[in-house]
Amino acid sequence: MKNLTKYKYFPPIISILIVFLVWYFVCRLEILNEYILPSPYRVFQTFLKLASSGELFVDIGISLVRVLRGFFIAFVIALALGMLNSILPFSRHFFDYIVAFFKNVPPISMIPLLILWCGIGETTKTVIIVLASFFPMYMNIVKGFTFCDEKLLEVGEVFAFSRSKRFFKIVLPNSLPDIFVGMRIGLGYAWRAIIGAEMVAASVGLGHMILFAQQMSRTDKVIVGILVIGLVGFLSDKLFAVFMEKVLKGEAKNGGN
Fold first, then answer.
1. Smallest Cα–Cα separation from 125: which of 55, 58, 59, 69?
2. In sequence order, what are the residues at sequence separation of 6 or more whose Cβ sits closer than 8 angstroms to the Cβ of residue 174?
3. Which of 21, 97, 134, 237 has the highest local Cβ count within 10 Å?
4. Which residues fall within 8 angstroms of residue 4, CB to CB, at 6 or more apart?
């Protein structure tokens, strides 16, 4: 088992190398035009140029702030509605159907209305990220609150806990793994929404960089933007996974690697 753990990084490294080799040979053999698919070397040179000028890190910082702001607001709303759902079960009838409806509506389809309602400032960008990340968090939070261990609830009844005390002493601690898994999924959705969010009159950010590069026919810059969003999202996901492990002490194995 220890030997398997020792070599666990080999398969992903090999798969990444295969992707880059295929990419290299497709460009080398000129199967696709350089305009359509620039070579890995050209993309790497563009990355170094953007990094050395500082432009790339400014875009990363702005996008990170937007993602975290929208993610935090979405989490607060999801937790509040989930708590209301658990403490006052009848309340779910007031908003469950609305939630079920809007979870099927792509946030990007709301952009025209959001521009009319909120303008082209940061509010619209934040709302798009909130809409993208809210639903997986809310559904996991409700799952955690709903499927609490019946034996633990019976203990609360034995001690004559009130509904609110039973929630904060039993249900909430027991549902932490589901809450964290929902947050981790929601964080990923927040990163996926950053392109749509920064379509709205953004002058900086990774999404703006990609869209502007597309308009200028800079395919190499587009690929750099995609790779950077994927890398930053991957790192934030891994950091959150480490945080989960520390807080839950290994209880969140179902949350993924």
1. 69
2. 144, 148, 149, 152
3. 134
4. none
Query: Which of 253, 234, 232 has its CA nearest to residue 244?
Result: 253
Distance CA 122, CA 49 (A): 28
Give the pLDDT confidence score for residue 236 in this predicted structure: 93
Q: Which residues contact 90 (CB under 8 A, 6 or more apart)?
A: none
Distance between CA atoms of residues 244 and 179, nearest Å: 10
Distance CA 175, CA 141 (A): 7
Greater pLDDT, 210 or 157: 210
Whole-model pTM: value is: 0.86
Give per-residue pLDDT as tens, 36-80. Answer: 899 999 999 999 999 999 999 999 999 999 999 999 999 999 999
Which segments of the chain does DSSP mark as H helices, in order? Answer: 2-6, 10-28, 40-53, 55-87, 92-102, 111-118, 122-146, 150-158, 163-166, 172-174, 176-192, 194-197, 206-215, 219-248
In whole angstroms, give the CA distance from residue 11 to residue 39: 24
Residue 5's pLDDT is 61
Among the listed residues 145, 144, 138, 126, the one whose alpha carbon sits nearest the alpha carbon of residue 200 = 126
88 three-class SS: coil
pLDDT at 253 over 50: no
| CA gap 1, 70 in Å, rounded | 41
Which residues are within 8 A (CB) of 151 and not within 5 positions of it... i.e. 6 or more apart?
Answer: none
